[in-house]
Structure formats: C-alpha cells, structure tokens
Amino acid sequence: MTTLSFEFFPTKTDEGTQKLLRVRDELAQHNPEFFSVTYGAGGSTRDRTYAIVKAIQDSGISAAPHMSCVGDSKDDLRQLLHDYQALGINRIVALRGDLPSGAGLASSELRYANELVEFIREETGDHFTLEVAAYPEMHPQANNFESDLNNFVNKVKAGADSAITQYFFNADSYFHFVERAQAKGVDIPIIPGIMPITNYSKLARFSDACGAEIPRWIRKQLEAYGDDIDSIRQFGQQVVTELCQRLLDGGAPGIHFYTLNQAEPCLAVWRELR
C-alpha cells in the first residue's frame, strides 16, 4: 500500500494559522497517514508548533511533530514528550535540528539525531513511531557520502521506525541511497520527500541552502520561463509527477509532500498519480 503524508510549517499570524487549517481540511480528504509539523531552529517555534500539532490531532488526523535536540535540554525534551503523549500523539519526526545563528553544538546535552532517538526510546519505550531524516544527495554539512550514510545507519540502529528523505529531483539518487542503506542492514521504509515546483527563485534558494540539487535541464527550463508563473507550475507539475511515478514504480513505499502550507500543488501531482 502506498502511503501519503504532508509537512506543514507553523505560521506567525492568526490569519496564517486559519489558512493552514483550511489547507489541512482539504488535504485530509485524501486520507494521509499523518501531517508533520516543523520545529524552528533551537526550538524557536516550540509554542506555535505545539498549537498546530494540537489543532491537527484534535481534528482526528494523526499529527507528527518534528522534535530536534540541539538547543534544548533533556528536561525540555522530556516535558515535550510528556505533553505530546497527553495529546495522544504517537509519531515524532526526530531530528538533530538547526542551531540559531551563532550558537554552538557544545551547548547541547544531545548533539546528534541518533542520540535523540535513543533518548526518546529510553523515556517512552515504543510509544512513538519515530521518523528520521535521510539525505540521498548527502547532508550539506557531511564530510562525505560514506560518513553521512553511516550517520543514517546509526539513527536506524538507535530505534528509528521509518525515514523521510530530503527532497530531490533525481530518482537515481534515491534508489542509490536505498540500495546502499540496505547493504548496511537497514530494513525500515525510506519515504521520498517531494517538493512541488511553483516558484523558481524560492526553490533555488531552498535548494542551495539544503544541498538538494536541481538538475541543469530543470534549472534552464525554469529560468527560460522567467516570470511566467503558469508555465513554471505546469512544467513543475509534470516534472514532479514523473519523478513520483518513477519512484513508486521502482518500489518507493510512499510519498511525503513538503507542502509549504499549500494544498493544490501537492494535490495536482497526487491526482495525476492516482
């Protein structure tokens, strides 16, 4: 069975939150397995993340809050786990997370995602399904592909149940990563993370920051469209739909959409796949 899930980020205004909840309701009609909600650098969106998670969970849909360890004490994380258990949350996306600008890893009690996975297991046993991140094109801060792959394996060994990848546009990078992970004994589902293409300048900025490669042929076509938003979206829908189809045909267990709090770009692709 192909799984479907969506990611949101917490908004900064009440108006933004109301719009997000309308998007939630629209996407919920397609029976996703869960909605994940991101967590700002150093816990900077903790309260807003919690509020969105509660609103999703209260609506009867499974919410999966992101939880990161850098910048938070074990006591803070312990309290957050308790709060999520009280809400009925049973899935968490466990990440190292980004530090606020100027902060150092040395200030954190837990420094890496595998340590966070171990901590959650020690505190809550098997209560939570734990998702971790995977990087088919390598984490931008990793020294090399092999060390990055080993870091992923460590997260799995620490108790991860499933993984969601950083977005990518080259299906071969996903298949290559899965093959190498399986060769190291990884047997958990690795769900491809998918980013719809709706705005070239934003996509280029995101991609440069997170290390996701936009293939040259895609870049050049998007550049050629200039400010023609309709053409960018039509081309983007075609590219992403074909990518998803190839991934699913090749054995990917599901699709996780990075929604950027918008429903239609994701649903346009999902309808084509259906």
Task: Describe the protein's architecture and organization.
It is built from ten helices and nine strands. It has helices at residues 14-28, 46-58, 74-87, 113-124, 145-158, 171-183, 200-210, 216-225, 229-249, 264-273, and strands at 3-8, 34-37, 63-68, 91-95, 129-134, 162-165, 190-191, 193-194, 254-258. It has a nine-stranded parallel sheet with strand order 7-6-5-4-3-2-1-9-8. Helix 9 (229-249) packs across helix 10 (264-273).
User: Sheet bearing the most strands, described?
Assistant: 9 strands, parallel
Query: Helical proportion?
Result: 40-55%
What low-confidence regions span 5 or more consecutive residues with pLDDT below 50? none
On the 0-100 scale, what is the average pLDDT? 93
Sheet with most strands: strand arrangement: 7-6-5-4-3-2-1-9-8
Strand content: 5-15%
Which term fits the overall shape? globular
Number of helices: 10
Distance between the first and last residues' Cα:
13 Å
The number of strands is 9
Helix-strand category? alpha/beta
Radius of gyration from the alpha-carbon trace, in angstroms: 18 Å
Order of helices and strands: EHEHEHEHEHEHEEHHHEH
